[in-house]
Amino acid sequence: MPLNQQHCTSPRELFSVLAAGAILLLVVHGLGRFIYTPLLPYLVADGQIDAAGGAAVATWNYLGYLMGAMVAIRWHRIDQIRVLLPVFMAVHILTSLAQTQLDTVTLISVSRWINGVANGVVFVQAPALILEWLVSRNRAAKSGLVYLGVGVGLLVSSALVTLAADWLSGADRWWPAAVLSIPLAWWGTARLLALDVPVRAEQPEQPTSKPGKLLDRASLPLFLAYAGAGLGYILPMTFLPLLAKLQLPEGHWLIDGSWLIVALVTLPSAWIWNNLGAKIGDHLAIIANFVIQLLGVLAAVLLPGATGIVLCGVLIGSTFLGAVLLTQRIGRALHPHQGPRLSAALVALYGFAQMAGPWLAKQWLGMGGTLESAFWIGVAALAWGLLFVFLVPKPEVWHRQSR
């Protein structure tokens, strides 16, 4: 591709492609996955589900996400993405519509599991397709803007739940997200399938080539830290509004407002951590990130009530995307020739850790524990992660020592 190809890409075209990717992430992540968080206290109040059942449903959804990510990693070529992307967007729409008709925990769990699979596939494949298109036009640095869809999705999900709170109940509460998903999914998918992305033939591996170790003294602490981040953040991202409902008087603005706070602070977070890492170094930035996340979950358990809920929402919402961004960058810096393998392994690990969080909470609640005390699982996970972050070597030091 000629270097001047980037001049053939107009700002309008660039915006529409990035917007299409962001909209698909908004649909599958905001309207598909995380809308469950602000919905949960209402579903509990409606008698459709209880806290333990809510944790079980979340676990199945996160298991689906993990499986979907693995599907996307296995079938990663451009020609495969062009087939799977529209298929799994259709799966998302169908399961979202099915959710409006289901009333038992078992059926809800099955639907949320399948929806999670669709989420995992689209969340990996849509940005991958856009990245290939951007690379062919020397615009790869713009690829991170796609993830703005996650932050906007949190905001939209909060608004939909709040606006419909008084006139919908039970399974009907899923209708706004299901209906809005249809036109957004159609436009975003059609725009990405129209991209002119070259399909490169797979090159046979050389028999003498060795991929090298994925786990070594440098990357193992990073993997262990990332597992702590996934487990630590997912509890408040799943149960914060329900915690607000349990701790605050009925009708308190934070029952809905806690998720709105998370959504608002998430919007600029990727940009902030990207620039902070560039300014002070990714290694120091990720240490700060874990400290802030740990303080956020601690606030929820040490300061029960409005103060703790607000602090938890602000500190977790402003950091979790930064942890993803910084971990991926540090991993690639430690193993620059294993980018795809490393990214795939990190996606799978994060997905597994997220699945484990609600499952552990369900076990704790089943033994008679409270939701408030279940947040200590997140505290322990982030403390674990922070410990191992300190053990991750700086990439430049590691490469100098490895020579």
UniProtKB/TrEMBL annotation:
InterPro entries in the cross-refs? MFS_4, MFS_trans_sf, Sugar_transporter_CS
Q: Where in the cell is it found?
A: Membrane
State the Gene Ontology terms under molecular function: transmembrane transporter activity
User: Which PROSITE patterns does UniProt cross-reference here?
Assistant: SUGAR_TRANSPORT_2 (PS00217)
According to the UniProt record, one GO cellular component term is: plasma membrane
Q: Which residues cross the membrane?
A: 12-31, 51-71, 83-101, 113-134, 146-168, 174-197, 218-239, 251-272, 284-302, 308-330, 342-361, 373-393
Q: How does it sit in the membrane?
A: Multi-pass membrane protein
Principal location class: membrane
For this UniProt record, the keywords arranged alphabetically read as follows: Membrane, Transmembrane, Transmembrane helix
Looking up Pfam families in the UniProt record yields: MFS_4 (PF06779)
Taxonomically, the superkingdom here is: Bacteria
Check the record and name the PANTHER family matching this protein: PTHR23537, SUGAR TRANSPORTER
Specify the protein name: Predicted arabinose efflux permease, MFS family
This chain's source organism reads: Marinobacter mobilis
